[in-house]
């Protein structure tokens, strides 16, 4: 039996485990949870069982899968009044999907990641399924995270690249090296919007624009995804203008809320 985990290390492991479960709406096995978090299987089983006892996860015994539990729903609903601004973004997400025909999203920054909070399908029949509600990506990987990263202060950008560069390249390839990210950050700052040219999934493009909080910091982002033929160079400025316009509208709603 592994030694008991205490203090900050325990909090970190529980956090990683809950995030892994949250990224799988159809549930995931304990073995998959262990692989996703880097924890040993005994530790994963022990933590999942403890979380289930408190109602933070549910276990479907017949399928051998774990899901987020009812206690998290209750805690989330209590926190929503302070942190949930999806109502401020919902109409803009719908408008972007309606005007462009692409899938539109609203994502929030959580530490060094973005989390997708809203998704609205467009009318174009061929879609990209890289993003979905609950999906997480490191800053700089998806277009939403690139838009947010690009508007952080320079010293924060450099600190992030210094600490995350090895893991980004290992997980997402050389197109996410510090030099490649700096080039895309410069391009984003020049145009105002971020472009992800199929760097996550072949033929799946994305564009994003940052949404700013009361302090003027990039805290959220609106984005669009679709196939490459829908993001040709001649169309990108139009999509960018729509994204920037709606990102400005959501920022105003946040400031006025």
Describe the structure.
- A hairpin with a 5-residue loop joins strand 7 and strand 8.
- A 6-stranded antiparallel β-sheet has the order 5-4-3-8-7-6, sandwiched between helices. Strands 1-2 form a two-stranded antiparallel ribbon.
- Helices cover 50% and strands 19% of the residues.
- The chain contains 9 helices and 8 strands.
- The chain is an alpha+beta fold and 257 residues long.
- The model has no long low-confidence stretch (mean pLDDT 89).
- It is globular.
- The protein folds into 2 domains: 7-74, Arc Repressor Mutant, subunit A; 84-256, Beta-Lactamase.
Describe the SSE topology.
Layout: H1 7-22, H2 30-37, H3 41-53, E1 57-60, E2 65-68, H4 70-83, H5 86-100, E3 103-110, E4 113-120, E5 136-138, H6 143-150, H7 154-172, H8 178-191, E6 194-196, E7 204-212, E8 218-227, H9 236-256
Antiparallel strand pairs: 1-2, 3-4, 3-8, 4-5, 6-7, 7-8
Helix pairs in contact: 1-2, 2-3, 5-9, 6-8
């Amino acid at each position: 039996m592994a030694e008991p985990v205490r203090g900050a290390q325990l909090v970190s492991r529980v956090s990683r485990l809950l995030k892994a479960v949250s990224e799988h709406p159809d549930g995931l096995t304990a073995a998959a949870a262990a692989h996703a978090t880097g924890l040993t299987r005994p530790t994963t089983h022990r933590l999942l069982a403890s979380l289930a006892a408190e109602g933070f996860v549910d276990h479907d015994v017949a399928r051998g899968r774990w899901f987020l539990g009812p206690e998290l729903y209750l805690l989330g609903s209590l926190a929503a009044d302070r942190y949930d601004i999806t109502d401020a973004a919902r109409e803009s997400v719908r408008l972007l999907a309606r005007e462009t025909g692409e899938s539109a999203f609203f994502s929030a920054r959580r530490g060094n990641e973005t989390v997708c909070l809203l998704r609205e399908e467009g009318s174009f029949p061929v879609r990209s399924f890289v993003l979905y509600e609950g999906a997480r990506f490191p800053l700089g990987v998806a277009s939403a995270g690139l838009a947010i990263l690009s508007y952080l202060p320079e010293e924060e950008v450099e600190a992030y690249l210094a600490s995350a560069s090895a893991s980004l390249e290992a997980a997402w390839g050389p197109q996410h090296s510090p030099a490649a990210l700096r080039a895309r950050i410069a391009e984003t700052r020049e145009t105002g919007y971020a472009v992800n040219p199929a760097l996550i999934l072949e033929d799946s493009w994305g564009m994003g624009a940052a949404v700013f909080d009361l302090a003027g910091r990039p805290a959220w982002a609106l984005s669009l995804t679709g196939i490459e033929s829908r993001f040709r160079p001649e169309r990108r400025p139009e999509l960018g203008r729509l994204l920037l316009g709606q990102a400005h509208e959501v920022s105003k709603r946040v400031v006025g809320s």
